[in-house]
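Category: protein sequence paired with discrete backbone structure
Discipline: computational structural biology
Format: plain text, a pair of labelled lines
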Amino acid sequence: MNYGLVPDLREKTIQITQEMNIEVDVSYLIKEGYNGVSAHHFGFNKHGDIGSAIFVKDGLERHIIDFNFGHESIHAIRYLGLESQFLEFLRKKGFALNPFETFRDEEQIAHVGGLISLHNRLVIWFYSHPDFDSVKKALMDSRI
């Protein structure tokens, strides 16, 4: 489930887990500054049913929000076992890249989702970061 923009990642995580009566580790979501975290995905299993929750810290720049939603969505896709649907989506968007085979690092795989979000807004070329530049190159080089 996409909870959208929230004022406090830690508090939203606690609220959702209490409402669902599930336990999720929030120790890395330090109350002051979130330890550098600006978005959150957590997968859960309740009585055999699996699900995912995604939300992004409110007040960020638009491109960071878009990137974070795309990035966290890939974590959810992986958790829910929907990789084949994402690959089909990539093909429809004109990309041959299979991030699940190309990258071993989970964060690099998730960066593909963030970059696709920036691509959809036609702003991918305006942003560069050492953490995702190699992923961006692999994605854009795979254009069909």
Strands lie at 2-6, 39-46, 49-57. The first helix runs from residue 9 to 20.
